[in-house]
Design brief:
Helix content of chain B: over 70%
Largest sheet of chain B: none
Distance between the termini of chain A: 20 Å
Strand content of chain B: under 5%
Largest interface: A-B, 110 and 105 residues
Number of strands of chain A: 0
Structural class of chain B: mainly alpha
Radius of gyration of chain A: 22 Å
Shape of chain A: globular
Oligomer: heterodimer
Radius of gyration of chain B: 22 Å
Order of helices and strands of chain A: HHHHHHHHHHHH
Structural class of chain A: mainly alpha
Strand content of chain A: under 5%
Helix content of chain A: over 70%
């Protein structure tokens, strides 16, 4: 998901063949992504601003959006802290089983979300072998979101930590700085863009998550996230209501992506 | 002041316990559940008619989606890496968008454009006898959408890193475009390409929300339930076989991840964001 921008301006000019290829790619992107997304926004605003506003300010829509943002923020903070910790342990520590931890971190990225919800339920649901049942609570939603967003922060911080030059740390240690000071004053500032970027990607993912939350949230009004609400609207043929909430979700992901892009550009300019 | 060694053990324990509780324990419990239910229950669950149809449908949809994303990903990566493309920045951003769009929004978006009743293009397509929504083409579109950038994001960094000197040299020596691609470009990107394919395949097999919206989740005759939809349906209906089918997908996923992570060389180039 990195932004490897076509920064080099040295590439060849487009010729007939490659121009045709680019045309095909753009056409495909339009048919698959751009036009459908435009259709959502158009549907959401189809009845004008007031209808859009009405659709996203019903009691349930407000409650749902508020809860979705809140739980995504909690998940983002936890990921920023524990994701950095995990990346740190994977890069700087060495212990038997480290390789296993490294591989396991990636599993949530590819595990089908409905299966993720199901396996979490089997441990933290009504038939919990450890008698810890969170089914249908707000904590259950946060748990599911933590599961699906686990790889994001770890995998963005890890490569930066690996590439970090350790000379500054050694120098600081020679001058008598304690490890916590070295971390806070030297390492953390260098990691911050990566931490923000990983946590931000996790936030965007959490805002739109559906499958993993579906089973474990128990389909209650208080634990409903935006995607489940939007699906319910679709089931009731209320496409305007679904599109309005979807437009809010799209705006949030777009804002997050924009912010991360700016952040990355600033970080790379600083070197 | 805690000693460095104690700090190290504390951090290590937090990391291991977190991973164990969040990911490992749930996977172990589901394996134990399926093993406890016995072999017959497993065989019955995965060989029922609905399950076989779901497997076939999932393979078909995911297979087509992966082929489309591979063609698109390799093609666009080559264009972005080797040519001056107008609007490259924007193109890059748009390609990444699907990763952070909610699957329900993806499904809704496709229904609004390709739906048979009042979709922008859907009605015209329906008039010519092409069903997209509530049918396989729609499910292919939804699956392709959600896994769109995965091949591109693996291949593009490698193309950037390796440069095009070899290709230029081959060109000077008289190799045609196809020959250059087959002999030089393809071997260069081979491992990145295979990771991209494995990741998109895993992601495509597991897609749930977007496919649920566009497929209508029809069971029985004219089934449009893929494996993930069948799992959800069986869970809601309290039918047996949920965990058995889920374990099949767990196995596929874990296999895919193990293949990719064990063979991927660690990225030390400091490119933030290469998940």
């Amino acid at each position: 998901m990195s932004q490897v921008i076509g920064a080099e301006r040295t590439g060849a000019r487009l010729r007939a063949g490659s121009g045709l290829g680019l045309g095909a790619a753009v056409l495909w992107l339009s048919l698959l992504v751009l036009i459908p997304i435009a259709a959502v926004v158009a549907k959401g605003f189809g009845g004008g601003w007031s209808q859009f506003w009405q659709a996203i300010t019903t009691e349930q829509a407000v409650r749902t959006l508020r809860f979705t943002v809140l739980s995504s923020l909690i998940v983002t903070v936890v990921n920023a802290v524990l994701g950095t910790l995990l990346a740190w342990v994977l890069v700087r520590d060495d212990f038997p089983g480290k390789r296993l931890v490294d591989v396991v971190v990636d599993i949530p990225f590819a595990l089908p979300t409905i299966v993720a919800g199901l396996v979490l339920l089997s441990v933290y649901g009504p038939n919990s072998p450890v008698h810890l049942d969170v089914y249908g609570t707000k904590a259950a939603v946060v748990l599911a979101l933590l599961f699906v967003t686990l790889p994001f922060a770890v995998r963005t911080v890890q490569p930066v930590l690996m590439a970090l030059d350790r000379e500054a740390e050694d120098a600081a240690a020679c001058l008598g700085a304690q490890p916590p000071t070295i971390f806070r004053r030297i390492i953390l500032p260098l990691l911050l863009p990566a931490i923000a970027s990983g946590a931000g990607l996790g936030f965007a993912r959490a805002m739109g998550e559906y499958g993993s939350v579906l089973l474990i949230s128990g389909n209650l009004a208080g634990t409903q996230v935006a995607s489940i609400y939007a699906y319910g609207r679709i089931q009731n043929y209320d496409f305007v209501g679904a599109a309005a909430v979807s437009t809010v979700l799209l705006a949030v992901s777009l804002l997050v992506l924009l912010a991360l892009d700016l952040l990355q550009r600033r970080a790379s300019r600083r070197g | 002041m805690a000693s460095p060694r104690r700090t190290r053990y504390t951090l290590r324990s937090v990391a291991v316990v977190y991973i164990a509780l969040l990911v490992l324990a749930p996977l172990v419990v589901i394996i134990a559940k399926v093993v406890g239910d016995g072999w017959t229950a497993f065989a019955d669950a995965v060989s029922s008619e609905a399950a076989l149809t779901a497997f076939r449908l999932t393979a078909e949809v995911a297979g087509i989606a992966v082929v489309l994303n591979t063609l698109f990903g390799v093609g666009l990566a080559l264009l972005l890496a080797r040519h001056r493309v107008p609007g490259a920045r924007l193109l890059n951003a748009v390609v990444d968008l699907p990763i952070s769009v909610s699957p329900i929004v993806v499904g809704l978006a496709l229904v609004l454009v390709y739906g048979p009743v009042d979709g922008w293009f859907g009605r015209a397509l329906a008039d010519t006898g092409i069903d997209v929504i509530y049918s396989t083409p729609g499910m292919v579109l939804a699956t392709t959408f959600v896994s769109l950038p995965l091949v591109l994001r693996e291949v593009l960094p490698v193309l950037h890193e390796e440069g095009d000197e070899m290709e230029q040299a081959a060109k000077v020596l008289g190799a045609g475009a196809l020959q250059r691609f087959a002999r030089i470009t393809l071997p260069t990107i081979r491992s990145a390409l295979s990771y991209g394919v494995v990741l998109s395949l895993a992601r495509s097999i597991g897609e749930f929300g977007a496919v649920r919206v566009v497929s209508g989740g029809i069971s029985g005759a004219g089934q449009t339930q893929t494996v993930t939809l069948l799992i959800e349906d069986k869970y809601e209906q309290l039918e047996g076989g949920t965990y058995q089918l889920a374990l099949v997908l767990v196995a596929v996923t874990v296999l895919a991840i193990v293949i990719v992570s064990l063979r991927r060389r660690p990225r030390t180039d400091g490119v933030a964001g290469s998940a």
